[in-house]
Each structure stands twice: as structure tokens, then as C-alpha cells.
Specification:
With 428 residues, this protein is an alpha/beta fold. The chain has helices at residues 3-11, 46-49, 58-70, 82-94, 108-123, 140-144, 149-152, 178-191, 218-228, 280-283, 299-314, 317-338, 366-378, 403-427; strands at residues 25-29, 32-35, 40-43, 101-105, 127-131, 162-165, 197-202, 232-236, 260-263, 274-278, 342-348, 351-358, 363-364, 381-382, 384-386, 392-395. It has 2 domains: 3-53 and 316-427, Aspartate Aminotransferase, domain 1 (Alpha-Beta Complex); 58-314, Aspartate Aminotransferase, domain 2 (3-Layer(aba) Sandwich). It binds pyridoxal-5'-phosphate (PLP).
Length: 428
């Protein structure tokens, strides 16, 4: 242990990982984290899909610094200020179709809560449908619509009025089509709810669920059902937004305009900010006194976010993510053909998953995923692990990651998978 880890042990409540990787971060730049003993790591998780423009992009730091020197806080819902106004205008420009007005909060979960409340107020309807395997945050409301018991464990009881719909999973249920899922949604509305459904919420690409990319006709089919029942579509782009999947927002791959879009994570490159963006008439459902956040739309975070979005545009990071993602997926496909412990590789842009399995029945292998994460760490590469069964290695690096850094990371992953296979053979 070292003194920082000791202090964590004594004073910090860490309730996410069983044991945190033994590194103490000293600095971060681009796609590289450096620890306090001077060791560099290629960061293929980007602080959980946050540092899309890279750690400490100079333009983002300068914008935050500039605003810090002017004023840190005034409460953006009490007094007018320029950074939130400029960022809201930018959000209207980059979000799909008629989405125009934004409420800023501090985190993804908080923005999700706001979106649910707004949908209820606008539609006057109480119930919500979410997706099986979906994840929306760790507050009571956002957990209530999370379709994954591993994340909900020990936190119930949850809010009533929530039903869960299936989604096509091309690896785990090959024969289930978008059409089947749209039909299930229709049946869920009819048989599992009181009919009083105001919103359907979904991640366009599921992150925590294990990097699940629904087929490209899925959301259009779902939207047809929602429109027939006057149900709003809330797209949760908290993890998939801001260039991560090769377009500014993942829903663009599906050609569907959501009614409300929720964003956070990569919006301000690591400064805490969440947002819900919607059409004029839906936004108008919030009457004075209905919604508020003390820190929401903080001027420093908003100034950083605006600079951050400009970097995504100016450095063509959407295209870069698409190209890097294709390259990584190609290399991982080749690895999969060599090693049966890799059941599936999938993804969109730089939101990539490697699903680890065991045996002929493709049983999820979470311990193997964990061992690969540990092995990559020793080789100087940080990857994530997730999925409903904890068996998906997640590769979600900063979009600025270079080809050389990608090759270094892929080498570490290949060697780790190979070592794991030899250990398994030796054990058998
Ligand atoms: N929605 C999605 C899709 C997420 O992936 C997350 C976090 O991982 C959240 C919401 C919650 O965001 P936050 O952790 O900022 O509350």
C-alpha cells in the first residue's frame, strides 16, 4: 500500500469495485494517465467514457481557467450568465432535429431524473418503459428504470410504474429481430401497464449492459409504436454522446429524433455537468418552481463544455472515432477467430466490447474478463469491465487516441488473452 491508498482505506467510501487498481494518478494528458511513480498507462476507458477530447485538452483547460478567474458560481437559475447561454445555444445546434432547449444538471443520473419528471408533466401520464439490460444511474429514480439486477442489488424497493422491454441482442439472442421487439413493446403497453405510459427511455448503444448495439432499424420500429400511443422517447446519450460512436450522438445512426435527449459524462471533458435537451413545447411543461439545481449549469463547467464541443468539431473527432473503431474491431475479430474464450466482439466507433465466455454453451466468464483487465494493467493499459454478467471488456478510449497507442493497447490485450488461454490449458 502507499499513503494515498491508506487514506482511501481509512476515509473514502469506495463502493464500486471490489478492489481498485493499485495506481495513484498523478497527471493525465491525451490518452495517457501517469501515476505517482512515473509509470504511463494508455487509458482505454477514458475515466468511464468521459475524456473524449483527451485528458486536459489545452482548449478546454484554458476555457475553464478563464471562467474560473471571472467567477465560479452565481447559480445559473438565479442570475443570467453567458457560459450557460452559449452552451445551450450550441446544444440546440448539435442535437438532432427540433431539440432546442436545455436544462443543465450536474450528472447523468440527475439529468435522467429531470427528463422523467418533464415527460410526466408534459404528457400528464405516469408510467415509464425502459429496456432490459439498460442502465441510467444510481439515484432511486434512475435505478428504478435500470433493467439490470446486478446494479439494483440491495437498493430497493424501487419506484412503481416501470416496465421493461426486451431489445435485440445479436449475440445472445440471434433470432430476435427489431420487429419482434417492437411487437413485445406493444404487448407490454397493453398487458403490463395501466396504459398510462408517458415515456420510453433507452440508451441508443447500451454501455453498462455490455456494449450492446441494437440493429439500425430498431429505434425507428420502436418509435412507430411510441407515436401510436403518444409516448415520448427519451434517448439516454450519457455514455454514447459527443462523438463516442462516430457521430455526435449515437441516435443519429438510427435516423430517429428523440423527444428528449439526456447527456453528461463527455459533455465537459470531466467537469461535472449533465443536460436534458428537448423541443420548445415539451420544455414549456416545466412551470416556475417545478425544477431546479443549485450547481446545475455551473459557469466553469459550461465554459469548458463549449470549448470541448468545439474541439470535437474542429478536430473531426467523430470521424476519427469511426475510423479508429473500425480498425480496432477488425483486429479484435482476428483475435476472436484464434481464441474461443472470446465469444463476441462488437461496438460502434470507440464504444467497443469483448464478451468473454467459457465452454460450448458460451457461459459468461466474468473471472476471465477480470483477469484480462488485471493483465492489461500490468502491461500499462487500462480497460473497463462491465455487462450484465460482468464478462465484457470495455474499450472506450479518448477519441484522440493515436494509432500507435491503439496498437500498443491491442498488443497488451492480445498477449493477455493468449496468456489466459495458456493458463487455462495448463490447468485442464
Ligand atoms: N446513463 C447512462 C447511459 C450511463 O452510462 C450513466 C453512467 O454510467 C448514467 C446515466 C449515470 O450518469 P452519472 O454517473 O453521471 O450519474
Amino acid at each position: 500500500m502507499n499513503p494515498t491508498m491508506d487514506k482511501y482505506q481509512d476515509y473514502v467510501i469506495t463502493s464500486f469495485l471490489k478492489s481498485m487498481p493499485p495506481i495513484v494518478v498523478q497527471k493525465a494528458q491525451g490518452a495517457v494517465l501517469t501515476d505517482t511513480v512515473g509509470r504511463d498507462y494508455i487509458d482505454c476507458f477514458a475515466g468511464l467514457a468521459v475524456a473524449n477530447t483527451g485528458h486536459c485538452h489545452p482548449a478546454v483547460i484554458a476555457a475553464a481557467h478563464d471562467q474560473l478567474e471571472k467567477f465560479v458560481h452565481c447559480c445559473s437559475y438565479l442570475y443570467y450568465n453567458q457560459p450557460i447561454a452559449d452552451l445551450a445555444e450550441k446544444m440546440a445546434q448539435i442535437t438532432p432535429g427540433r431539440l432546442k432547449k436545455t436544462f443543465f444538471a450536474n450528472s447523468g443520473a440527475e439529468a435522467v431524473e429531470g427528463a422523467l419528471k418533464l415527460a410526466k408533466l408534459y404528457t400528464g401520464k405516469q408510467e415509464v418503459i425502459a429496456l432490459q439490460c439498460g442502465f441510467h444511474g444510481r439515484t432511486l429514480g434512475s435505478l428504478s428504470i435500470t433493467g439490470n439486477s446486478s446494479r439494483k442489488r440491495r437498493g430497493g424497493p424501487y419506484a412503481p410504474g416501470v416496465s421493461f422491454a426486451p431489445l435485440p441482442n445479436r449475440y445472445r439472442s440471434r433470432s430476435v429481430t427489431s420487429e419482434d421487439c417492437a411487437r413485445s413493446l406493444q404487448e407490454i403497453i397493453r398487458f403490463c401497464t395501466s396504459g398510462d405510459v408517458g415515456a420510453f427511455i433507452a440508451e441508443p448503444v447500451l454501455g453498462e449492459g455490455g456494449i450492446i448495439v441494437p440493429p439500425f432499424d430498431y429505434f425507428a420500429r420502436v418509435k412507430e409504436v411510441l407515436d401510436r400511443h403518444n409516448i415520448l422517447f427519451i434517448a439516454d446519450e450519457v455514455q454514447s454522446g459527443f462523438g463516442r460512436t462516430g457521430t455526435m450522438f449515437a441516435i443519429e445512426h438510427y435516423g430517429v429524433e428523440p423527444d428528449i435527449m439526456v447527456t453528461a459524462k463527455a459533455i465537459a471533458a470531466g467537469l461535472p455537468l449533465g443536460a436534458l435537451t428537448t423541443r420548445d413545447e415539451i420544455a414549456a411543461a416545466f412551470q416556475p418552481g417545478d425544477h431546479f439545481s443549485t450547481f446545475g449549469g455551473n459557469p466553469v463547467c459550461c465554459a469548458a463544455a463549449l470549448a470541448n464541443i468545439r474541439v470535437i468539431e474542429q478536430e473531426n473527432l467523430c470521424d476519427k472515432a469511426a475510423q479508429s473503431g473500425k480498425y480496432i474491431l477488425g483486429r479484435l475479430e482476428a483475435l476472436k477467430r484464434q481464441f474461443p474464450s472470446i465469444g463476441d466482439v462488437r461496438g460502434l466507433g470507440l464504444m467497443i466490447g469483448i464478451e468473454m465466455v467459457a465452454g460450448d454453451d458460451l457461459k459468461p466468464a466474468p473471472a476471465q474478463a477480470e483477469r484480462i483487465r488485471e493483465s492489461c494493467l500490468k502491461k500499462g493499459v487500462l480497460v473497463g469491465v462491465g455487462g450484465v454478467d460482468g464478462n465484457v471488456i470495455r474499450i472506450q478510449p479518448p477519441l484522440v487516441i493515436s494509432r500507435e497507442q491503439i496498437d500498443f493497447a491491442l498488443q497488451a490485450i492480445s498477449e493477455s488473452v493468449e496468456e489466459l488461454a495458456s493458463q487455462e490449458t495448463a490447468r485442464a
